[in-house]
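Is this the right way to post structure tokens for a design question? Let me know if I should format differently. Anyway, here goes:
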């Protein structure tokens, strides 16, 4: 479980986050949604420590992370898996070497244990036997799956995902969402996903926070969204005439 309390983040004169609090439970897909520039990625970065909040703090299972020193944060960092927007694979490394990268950095495993773990993770994302391929030889969806395999290599308690569906077709997006959803439930991971994708919101949005102008403007589940009377959220989620018409039929 991750708890964020009254997070503010200011860049120069620009106050991007204005006092955001939320609880992200384990075994759930926690989605951060909102319009472009509403502060989603900034919030994600504040949670994982890539940005320091101007004010407020973040607790990982009760441990206050924000005021910790770099060294004190290391044990929590080892429990964090991250999947970035462009998959962020190392182009000069094979699929297997990419997955073993965090194990080489952070684990005490022997070479054969690392190999076994990489094979297990590849199997888990349905990419068995793709060990020796290079990222350039993979489709966008396969790259995402390798990114997920690498993110789960260290058996993370916390998984952070920035725009998992960017650049993917709708069908592949659903495959990636389902994979994240399965892993989250299977390993009871606290998963936090930044997304624009309404299919993801409706498909796997167990818990959603909606940011508007740097504030949390709404919170609920995908089941609640169809019945929201929050105007900004309604305008954001059901932006097109087509989705508005579909909503009206619900
Ligand atoms: N490192 C930075 N330095 C200065 N300003 C920044 C920095 N990072 C983000 N910002 C500003 O913070 C605001 C919110 O950006 P952020 O990327 O968090 O929005 P977002 O909701 O993730 O947007 P998008 O959906 O377009 O990715 C923007 O005005 C942006 O210019």
């Amino acid at each position: 479980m991750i708890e964020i309390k009254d997070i503010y983040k200011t860049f120069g004169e620009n106050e991007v986050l204005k006092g955001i609090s939320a609880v992200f439970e384990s075994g759930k897909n926690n989605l951060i949604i909102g319009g472009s520039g509403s502060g989603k990625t900034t919030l994600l970065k504040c949670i994982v420590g890539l940005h320091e909040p101007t004010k407020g703090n973040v607790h990982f299972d009760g441990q206050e992370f924000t005021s910790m020193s770099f060294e004190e944060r290391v044990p929590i960092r080892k429990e964090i898996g991250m999947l970035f927007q462009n998959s962020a694979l190392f182009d000069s490394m094979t699929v297997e070497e990419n997955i073993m990268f965090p194990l080489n950095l952070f684990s005490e495993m022997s070479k054969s244990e690392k190999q076994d773990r990489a094979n297990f993770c590849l199997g888990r994302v349905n990419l068995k036997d793709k060990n020796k391929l290079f990222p350039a030889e993979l489709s966008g969806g396969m790259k995402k799956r390798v990114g997920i395999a690498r993110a789960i290599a260290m058996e993370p308690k916390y998984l952070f995902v920035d725009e998992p569906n960017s650049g993917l077709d709708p069908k592949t997006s659903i495959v990636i969402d389902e994979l994240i959803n399965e892993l989250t439930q299977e390993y009871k991971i606290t998963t936090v996903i930044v997304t624009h994708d309404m299919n993801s919101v409706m498909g796997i949005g167990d818990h959603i926070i909606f940011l508007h102008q740097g504030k949390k403007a709404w919170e609920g589940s995908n089941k609640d969204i169809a019945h929201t009377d929050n105007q900004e959220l309604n305008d954001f989620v059901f932006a097109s005439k087509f989705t508005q018409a579909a909503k009206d039929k619900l």
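Format looks fine. Someone answered above. Worth noting: The pocket of adenosine-5'-triphosphate is lined by residues 11, 14, 16, 34, 36-42 (CB under 6 Å). The chain is about 40% helix and 25% strand.
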